[in-house]
Amino acid sequence: MIxxxxxxxxxxxxxxxxxxxxxxYDFDKNTxxxxxxxxxxxxxxxxxxxxxxxxxxxxxxxxxxxxLLQYSLFxxxxxxxxxxxxxxxxxxxxxxxxxxxxxxxxxSLTSPSYTQxxxxxxxxxxxxxxxxxxxxxxxxQKSIRNKLLEYFNQMANQQRSRIIYLPFSFTDLxxxxxxxxxxxxxxxxxxxEEKIIDVKARKIMxxxx
Amino acid sequence: MIxxxxxxxxxxxxxxxxxxxxxxYDFDKNTxxxxxxxxxxxxxxxxxxxxxxxxxxxxxxxxxxxxLLQYSLFxxxxxxxxxxxxxxxxxxxxxxxxxxxxxxxxxSLTSPSYTQxxxxxxxxxxxxxxxxxxxxxxxxQKSIRNKLLEYFNQMANQQRSRIIYLPFSFTDLxxxxxxxxxxxxxxxxxxxEEKIIDVKARKIMxxxx
DNA sequence: TTTGTTTTGTTGCAAATGCAACAGCGTTTA
DNA sequence: TAAACGCTGTTGCATTTGCAACAAAACAAA
Lengths: 209, 209
Known about the structure:
The structure is a homodimer.
Chain A: H1 10-19, E1 23-27, E2 31-32, E3 42-48, E4 51-56, E5 62-68, E6 73-74, E7 86-90, E8 94-100, H2 101-104, H3 112-139, H4 144-159, E9 163-165, H5 170-177, H6 181-193, E10 197-200, E11 203-206
Antiparallel strand pairs in A: 1-8, 2-7, 3-6, 3-8, 4-5, 4-7, 9-11, 10-11
Helix pairs in contact in A: 3-4
Chain A binds a DNA duplex through residues 142-145, 169-171, 179-183, 185-187, 189.
């Protein structure tokens, strides 16, 4: 995660936030952000804590669309997440900054810290695009096997090793790959039987490569 | 598509491009960009023409990863597209601008046109994230039927009508949804039989909503 | 026009997948 | 401690899906 205020001194940051008319909110564990706070037309920056964007579909099924950790951004109007069917829950006590869109997109501001801030945001959005591209590359694979292998490859490149560590549970992996967990479990068994991979808890060894 | 130079006068634009040490290239139809031009560590902006990012997998299968129209951006380092397995082909005579990353991420620049330019880039990257989110929302649907319906809904929201027009062929739609074309065709037939939709060439009427 | 190319619709079939259900296990909570 | 909860592995089964193949239609080019 990239700090949106990196390369900005603490004093400049305070000054900048004043200029942008930013406001800071605290949320207790297990509270909904949207029920108490208007975040439309604002950019939200997570300063600390842990939140989740949760989508409820017409059946009432809830899906975790995204995990928000420190320095995560979200914004309805800037569309870092999607619809109106979403809610945001603080899963841990969290502190977030709200900045109005119009304050951000204000070319008349000329301070170096503002320019640096915009460049930081540009770097972050660029990184998010990379992550989305990666996921799309995986999701467009047609079989469960190919989704898994594509995911393993991405992780191996990222972790620069043919031994990779899952950053989350197998249940979450199935969610990420948008496949049935039990079907995934079955396919992983096949990959193990064919000696293509070895699995020990969340440690996965790739025997090709 | 958003013009990366919007709200910048022609004179300021020329001045800005000089400051950023931008270079302009022309490509003939059916030529490969990467074979003649080093684009690593640069941002590429399509000024005019039509190009495609083409991925060749280990089987030799070629996939069109992305179409690049006027004002499209692409960049290996900034990761608007993915891997090294990609090539970029001009499908029509095309003109592109290359700007070195370091020139863009230069907080010491203070001219209003530079600030406007990076704000424009930020707006574009934000829009790209929105598009990627939309596609991911569709790709994470488990059945062909749900992928189609999710896609139709997105289009209906976008076109603000329950009558939507496909922006491309059904063959391309199957690619976009990452499903088999014949299986998609079968499912569309079912949707028609169940009177959920009507289809006339690329015009689709949604009978719910 | 004629020819060639791309798109579309269809079908049979084997294989892949989702779903439901259950059990074992470890961790957390009351 | 006991109960509750979440994660994992497994299995049977109905359904969905991909694949291959072919013909008709639409479109583009010569």
